[in-house]
Amino acid sequence: MLRTRLFFASRSLGSLATPVPILLAACILATLPAPAMAQKKAPKGSKIYLLSGGQRQHHGYRDQAFYLSGLLEDTGRYEVTIGEDGAMLESPAIKKYDILIVLTDRRDEEFKFTPSQQKALFDLVRSGTGFVSIHGGDNAAKDWDPEFKKMLGGVFSHFGLPDGKRYTGEMTVKIVDKASPITAGLKDFSLKDELYYNMQMEPDVRPLAVVEYMGTPWPVAWTRTYGKGRVFHTPLGHRGFGPDKDDPLRNPHLARLLVQGIDWIAEGKAK
Known about the structure:
- This protein has 271 residues and is α/β, with parallel strands linked by helices.
- The chain has six helices and eleven strands.
- Strand 3, helix 4 and strand 4 form a beta-alpha-beta unit.
- It starts with a helix and ends with a helix.
């Protein structure tokens, strides 16, 4: 097939001023699929399973997953594997990972964690697997096990009280715990993002950072210990669907907060 196409090109392009070999090379290259992402050699360090997927028309989760995996691997401390199927939580293979990151909203029927997947997640973290939840990872479905709230420390919900609210726009992230290694080197910073406020929170949550909105400081980063596992959650990081949407994780200050949160989890896993 390729030989036939080249023969046709040589006959039809022969009268053009541009040399045929150059045109042929251009034609061949144009038909080859462009690489989606350059393959990188995995660094030595903690193994992370990044569970992406979710509401396809709401979050640009694939772009964000590729960016986040590159950000983490470029530190030289992490090896990241990306997946989208929650069934991985019940696979024996999940146990080879040190840290699990859940990136997006999984409330839709197609993407919900089943009861057995939820139990598998709780068991993983209790046994010592580190857990990171970003933005929509805290969006509670009605059939979520209440244990999610205990593990995460807070959930965004439209059932029960309080009813979660959202604000999208410019905001100032204020560092309120400057002694934590997660906030080391960070000062208050500006961010364009989506704020979840009026969340259903556990009473013992101590925020690392807050955003003041309507006269109230709302937690936007905190940690938990769940069994033997360390947990880090930030409700920030909304990456809208579409090629022209901003990704708040590309803000260097939020990126640093997230990476240092993952470092804190990896340190606990190592111990």
